Amino acid sequence: MPMPRAVVWDFGNVIVRWDARTLYSKIFPDPAERDRFLTEVCTIDWHIATDRGVSFAENCGSLAARHPEHEAAIWAWKDRWWEMFSGSIAETEAAIEALDAKGVPQFGLSNVSLETLERTMAMSPAFSRLKGVVASAAEGLIKPDPAIFRLASERFGFAPEELMFVDDAAHNVKAARDLGFHVHHFTDPAALRPALEAAGLL
Q: Is residue 31 part of a domain?
C-alpha cells in the first residue's frame, strides 16, 4: 500500500471541540436529568437528520411537538447551538499548519448542516488551509456511508490509498479503512502528530 499524499479531516472533536453537554449542563444542572434528556429526547440519532439536510427548525419543531414538556430545551438545540462548542484543538491546528508548510494537500469531510458550515469554518484559521470540503448536508450522504467516502476521493482527486482520513468516530474510521484509506482514529490530540509522522506526511 502506498504512503498517503494528502489528509482528509473530520471537523467536530478533531479540529473544534463540540459536545451537547457543554450547553445542556446550563439547562439541566442535574447530571442525571441532563443525560436522560440527551439519551431520550435530543439524541445524536435525532440530530443526524440536520446533517442530512433537514433544517434545524423542522427537526426541532417536529421533536417539540412530540415532547411539549421539553419544548424550550429542544429549541435551545437550534437557538443556542454555538454554546455546544468550546474552542479549537491546538494540536490539530498545529498539525494542519505544519502540513500546509510542507505542501501536503488537505481537505475536509464532515457530517454537518449547511446552516452551520460557514460559521464552523470560521472558528479556526486552520480551516482556511483546506483545499476542498465535502459536507454531508450538501450531498445527501452521511458518514459512515461508503458513498460519501468515494465521493470525497473522486472530488479531491486522490485514490483512497493516497489519502489519510482523521476522525474521532470509530465507525467512520472503519468505513474509510474498509475502502482503502489510511486512517487515524482521533482519540488523543497528543497522538496526532506521531501518526502523521509515521505515515510520512510530516
A: yes
Which of 150, 140, 142, 136 has the alpha carbon at shortest distance from 179?
150
pLDDT tens profile 36-45: 999 999 999 9
User: Does residue 156 contact residue 163 with C-beta atoms inside 8 Å?
Assistant: yes
In terms of pTM, does the model score above 0.90? yes
Judge contact between 186 and 167, C-beta under 8 A: yes
Of 84, 115, 137, which residue sits at a domain end? Answer: 84
CA-wise closest residue to 110 among 167, 47, 44, 153: 167
Beta strands in 69-161 (DSSP E): 85-88, 106-110, 133-135
CA dihedral of residues 8, 10, 13, 17 (deg, nearest 10): 100
- Is residue 1 a part of any domain in this protein? no
Coil, helix or strand at residue 35: helix
CATH, residue 106:
3.40.50.1000
Range(s) of the domain holding residue 29: 19-84
pLDDT digits (tens, 9 = 90+) for 65-85: 999 999 999 999 999 999 999
What total of structural domains would you count in the chain? 2
